Structure formats: C-alpha cells, structure tokens
Amino acid sequence: MTSNPLYLPELREMLSSSDKEGMREFCEAVHPAAAAEFMEGLSADESWAVLQHTGPATRTAIFSFFESAKQVEMIETLDREEMAELIGELAPDDRVDILKDSDTEVVAELMPLVPADERRDILRLRSFPEGTAGAVMTTEFARIHETATVQQALDEIAVQAGQLETIYYLYAVDTSDHLRGVLSARQLLSAIGKPNLSVGEIMERHVVSVDVDEDQEEVADKVARYDLLAMPVVDQEHRLLGIITYDDVLDVMREEAVEDAQRLGAVDPLQDSYLNTPFYTLAWKRGMWLTILFLGALLTALALQYYHVELSRWEWLVLFIPLVISSGGNSGSQSATLIIAALSAGHVSLGDSLKIVRRELLQGLLLGSFLGLIGFVAAYGLRGNVGDALVIPATILLVVLSGTFFGAVLPLLFERLGQDPALMSTPFIAGIIDVLGILIYMTVALTLLAPPILSG
Amino acid sequence: MTSNPLYLPELREMLSSSDKEGMREFCEAVHPAAAAEFMEGLSADESWAVLQHTGPATRTAIFSFFESAKQVEMIETLDREEMAELIGELAPDDRVDILKDSDTEVVAELMPLVPADERRDILRLRSFPEGTAGAVMTTEFARIHETATVQQALDEIAVQAGQLETIYYLYAVDTSDHLRGVLSARQLLSAIGKPNLSVGEIMERHVVSVDVDEDQEEVADKVARYDLLAMPVVDQEHRLLGIITYDDVLDVMREEAVEDAQRLGAVDPLQDSYLNTPFYTLAWKRGMWLTILFLGALLTALALQYYHVELSRWEWLVLFIPLVISSGGNSGSQSATLIIAALSAGHVSLGDSLKIVRRELLQGLLLGSFLGLIGFVAAYGLRGNVGDALVIPATILLVVLSGTFFGAVLPLLFERLGQDPALMSTPFIAGIIDVLGILIYMTVALTLLAPPILSG
C-alpha cells in the first residue's frame, strides 16, 4: 500500500483553513478504504481533526481501514472520552485487535468509559487465545429463533442491517442459543412471496461450523473449501458464540502465508510484524535455527578432517568444495520448495509420494547431467587434465540427484508424521546435503583418482 | 484435503445394490463441498452414477467442488450430451476453467451441444489471457437499471436469486451498460419500507472496479483492502462486463502464495500444479536458475584458486570452508525471507529501509558473535591452538554480518527498482555470500596468521 501524495496538500490546506465542508466531502466522496489510504501521511491528530467533520458511521468506517499502528497511536494519544466512544462503535473483532496492541495503562483508563455491554463483550473476546477461531470471530451477527416467520426475519434484518457486520447469513437458534440452521439472504429473498413460512421450514439444517478453539488456519481452509461468506463459531455444546467473516479469513490467509515463508526460510514464525517484533525475540527466533544449522555444518569440518590425507595429496580438490555443496543445496531447496508449496496448496497428497520421488529423481538426472557438463568444462579449464576433470561432473550428478531426492522425501516424510512439512526448511535440507556432498565428492575422487590397481 | 474413507464402502454398496434413495440422501444430506470430498475415492463413472440420483442443482453444486483433475476426467470420458448439459449449468467462470484444462478435441465435440447463449459466453471468457481479471470473472450477476424502483429491484432479485453466483451486490447500469453505482443487499433490505425510491437515489455512486486486463494479484489485493464480497470488472469505456467474487479471490491468493514461495526457492513460477506441469517445462523453470547459481558458484573455485598458496601453507583452513559459507548463506536467507515477506505483506515499506538495515546489522552482530563463540570452541578442539582457532570466530562474525546486510539490502534494492523483491531468491543471496565468505575467510586468515612483523 503506497500512500497517495496527491491529496495530502489539499487535506492540509483544508485543515489549516478549517474548510469543514471540504473535509466532509473528502470523507464521504470515496470508499472509506480509499479515504483511509489518502490520509496515510497525516498524523494521528490531523487525521482525527479531519474525521470530526463527518458522521459517526463514516468516521468509524474510515478509522477501521487505518493501518493498525496508526489506530493504536490514535487510541493512545487522543482524547479518552472520544476514543471510548469510537471503540464502542467499532466491530467487536476489530476493537479487540486494537486494544490487544495498545498500552495496557491506556486500555485500563479507556475501559470504564466504554458502555457496559460492549465492555463485557470486549473482555470475553480478549480471553480467547491468539490464533484460535474465538480470537478472530465477531459477536455482531443476525440471529433469529427457528420458529420466526419469513416476514419477521425480513423485518428484523431491515432493522439490524445497519449495525451488523454481515447480514448475508441469518443464523437460526433454539431457545438455549444452540445453532439449529442457517438461512442465506438469498434463500430469504427467494421466500419473499411466502411471508408466513417459518425460518425452520426453509433453513439449511446442515450448517458447517467451527469450534471456538479451532486453529485459525483450519478455519480459513474450511471457509475457502466451502465457499462461505461467514463461518459460525460454536462452543462444546454447539451454542452459537459468533461468526468469522470472509474478510477476516483473507487476513488470516495473508498472515499464514507470511508464517509459511518464514518457516521455509528457517525463521520461527513471528507473532508480530517484522518491525514490531522486539529485538531479542527476533534474535531468538532466528538464532535457534541458525545454531542448529551451524552445529550441523560443523559435521562438514569433521568430514573434511577425515579426508585430510587425500586433500593434501590432491590439493586442487579443495577448489570445488563450495561449488559441489552449493549445487546440492540449491537443487535440494528447489525440490523442497516445490513439494512443500504443492502439499500446502493441496495440489499433491501423500498418495502421490512414489510419483513425486520418481519425478524428482528424473529431474535430478537431467539437471545434474547438464550442470555436470558445465562443471567438466570449468574443471578441465583449471586442471588441463581430462582424468582429474572427470571427478567434477560425476560428483555433481550424484550430489544434484541427492538434492532432488532428499528435497522431495524429507517434506513428504514430515507430512506423513503429521508434522508441518514447512518445518523442513530449505536451509535445513541444504545443510543435510552439504555433509552428504562432501562424502560423495571424496568417495568419487578416491575412486577415480586412485584406482585399486595403481595404489596396490 | 484428505479423502474420508468412512463413506466409500457405503457408497459402493449403494451403487452395487442400486439404492437410489440412499444415494439421493447422501447427495443432499451434507454441504456439496463435503459430499464432493467423501466421493474423492470414486472413479469418474462411479461419481456420475451417484450424482444421477439427485436434482440438477445439487448435481452441479457437488460437481463444482470436485478436484479439477476429476472434473476434466469426467468431462472427457462421460456421455457427451450429459456433459454438455452439465457445462451449461456450471458457473461461467468455473466452466471456462474446466474447458481450458480439457482435451481440445473433446471440447470441440462438446461445444455444439452447449446452448448457444452459454457457448458465446464461454468463447468470450476464454479469450481473456490467463492471470487477468477477465479470466477470473463470472458473467452471471445481478444487474439493474438505475431508474428501477426498490420494489422492482426486490422482485428482480427474488426471481434471479437461484441462478446468480452472488446476489449480495446489485449493480446499477445505464442503458448502454455503463457501471453507474452499486446497491448492496444490505442497503436494499434497509430500504424495504420505501419501495418507490429509485435505485439511483439510494445506490453508492463511488464504485471500486477493476479493468478487465488488470493482473489478478492486484484484483485480490483490492478486494482484500476494500473488504468487498465482489468486484465489478469493466472495459475501457467503463461498461460492466462481469464480477469477481470473494471465493475466486481466495483461490487467487492461494495461487499467488504458491508462486511467491517458488520464486523464493529459485524456481520460476509454474503455471500449473506440480504434477500437471510437463517434465521439460519443470526442468527448464528450475534449470535456468540452477545454471545461473552454478555459474555464480564457479567464482568460488576461482577465489580459492587465487589463494592456493595460502591454502597449502595452512591446510587446516580447508576444514572450515563449508561451515563459513553456510553460516553466511543461512543468515542471508533468513534476512531475505523476513524482509521479502514483510514487504509483500505490507508490514514495511521503502521508507523503513534505514531502520531495517540498522536492525539487521545489530542482529548480525549478536548472532555472529554467538555462532563465532561456538566456532571458536570447535576450532580450538580441532587445532588445539588459540591463535589458529581465533580465525574462525572473526570470520564467522564478519560473514554473518555480510549475510544479514546483503539479505536485507538486496530485496530492498529490488523493491526500489520496481522489481519483485522475491526475485532476490534466497539461493541467489546465499550464492553471493558464498563468494564473499571465501574472500573474508582468506583475508582474516592472512591477517591473523601471518602478521606483517613475522613475515617481514
């Protein structure tokens, strides 16, 4: 999101000349998301001054599209009374997110100013652990008793439409709030000619729902799989607690994509954005993996130590050590990336394992042969001797084959064990192949350079 | 998506005993997505046999949730007439996707059997290039003239509700089909008490829309940013051509996440899923990057060749070459992953560049010092000499610092140049740091092991 510098001077001009009509028009002329974007360059104070000139609904809508850092800054620095009022008007899930990020002292000052109903709702929503369905859900949704008529449902929805996050599903409950069925706005509108039918007669009884403590990633998968606009959230007794709307699912999917990328890059997923993660937390989350990889890499030193006699006899072998291990690491990273991404997108499953491994071995054969050819030319150029130079293509072919093989097999193995295959980060796979690459290199060199007949 | 083996034996049993009622119940008892999932283990023939026993609407709904490979198999192998009928009933965007993947001869046989209206629509949708808004949009949506009344709009929507992909937005057009405004079902329902108002009076005039040739990733970003259920697609003259619904946006986001992961892993993004990509296309898409990385890695051989005198004087230095370069590569991969993911999620922007680089240098200092300490212990263990062993921690500190520095700077540089920062794949960054690592290692070794006073 890049801020649009075109509107900023005009906005500042309106502010300094107190052009109330101009600011009102600005707020109401475009989609609230666009207005929020145009105001990106304004300070918390200035933004609030602009928002004064429009009604509470538009003000809240624009505020809800600000970046979360700006929202928190406004909550923390502006007038407590006004902010408490704003908080009361925000969608339940949005305000809980903002309050979670705000200074606890400020929140303690604000809470008594928020109306009692909203306050209770905030406290309840805050109690759900981060990353669960409960923490993502909102509590404002259309709920109706299953015995109500279509006409009553239509009247109810017309009244509530302005306040609810989504009116596209009407959830039918019994007297103890158990989820009994769902009626889409589409079904309701189709029944407009039969106002006396009861909701229970036309509703869909097989409702897909999620448990309040279900992982948000699984919720997002379910919403995407069932093409739903909103997913009801229930407790253990199947009582309706809230709903998760598709726009929050989009946010969850973005979050999870970032986490997957971090796992693949051997960083323990950050809870927060990069800049908001405290320095030592960040250092720990990468340091632990870096240390594991470092200890693994120490094995390469031991492997080379084991072959030190051969390495001093054929000193030129040293030249190609980095080339050999990077070839294995790169081909392994590629295979792992392809297989992990295909697994997480649902393009392949464990049932395809044999097909995948066979395919990767053939790819390794082709790619390894080609790179080996380049390696042969380079080695011949440096050594001027066909016998020596042959060590390199043979090694590279075997190392690339190991790379594609382990790059495919290790993520599949993790998937089979019920672990996240992205834990098999590409640096981790590259590390395994580093050690293997040295063993292959030395074995090939010994075989080709010191045939048993000559050394005997 | 794992298939549920519980239902399969029952389904096969029903099929062999021709239990029509049982199969009908199975199709209608659960959400179509769940029914499709339960049928995953059935062949194309068997699936179609089960679907015979429910009405066309449920049949089409379940079919639309099958995996695309199964849909294509069914289209290609089952009765042409029946398939043509099914195609006519599918959502316009779904059927175009399936036909794109199907055998061209089969499509040529099927098309004349599809009703003329649908056929024209298919041909038009197929003409939009893959990856553009036009290729993702659907052409069935609620459209109404801006002068219609609320009552007419309600009547119209009640009639069309069953056939349209989304009725949650009603698009208002003028007589030449120019997009004039949008009315959400929410606004329409709120106006239920004023049936004589015209759509033009209550509609939202500031409609966010996308161009038909806009990139699908930008469309997905816009929908997510504006929290929309559907996005109208217009041509150059702002005529309404179709809409993109949020469920297709979810699919686009998944696709783009896979592509980003592939770029990060140094694979040119695949157009198709892993198993559907032809063997030589796959080999080319990874081979080109592997070759570039290989040529880069050849530089390490030249660097080592340059230092061959020093390496034969202090042979033990060879032991730590892989350790040194993998430390740099891993810390560089981590930084690059963090920065690229933060940039693509919009958590950081170019304005934060200085802050990011400063942060990464401090992280490098901390992580490099810690790894250097472990390295010192290992080197002392292998060499038994403090003077020699000191080369390793000094090198590792500098190499890790270079890793975090270049890992942060190169993606930022690419972003600045208007390129996709994910092109700075982690193997690419690791490759640059490999060469640099050897230069640093040799320079440190020369400085510490051969002080000018002794060598003079």
Describe the structure.
The structure is a homodimer of 456-residue chains. Chain A has 24 helices and 6 strands. In chain A, strand 5 and strand 6 form a beta hairpin. The first copy, chain A, is 64% helix and 6% strand. Chain A folds into 3 domains: 120 residues, MgtE N-terminal fold; 103 residues, CBS-domain (Roll), CATH 3.10.580; 177 residues, Tetracycline Repressor, domain 2 (Orthogonal Bundle). At the A-B interface, helix 3, helix 12, helix 13, helix 15 and helix 16 of A face helix 3, helix 12, helix 13, helix 15 and helix 16 of B.
Write a brief structural summary.
Chain A has 24 helices and 6 strands. The first copy, chain A, has helices at 7-16, 20-29, 32-38, 44-51, 56-64, 68-77, 80-89, 92-101, 104-110, 116-126, 133-136, 150-160, 185-190, 199-202, 216-226, 246-264, 279-306, 308-313, 321-344, 353-383, 386-389, 391-416, 426-449, 452-455; strands spanning 142-145, 169-173, 179-184, 210-211, 230-234, 240-245.
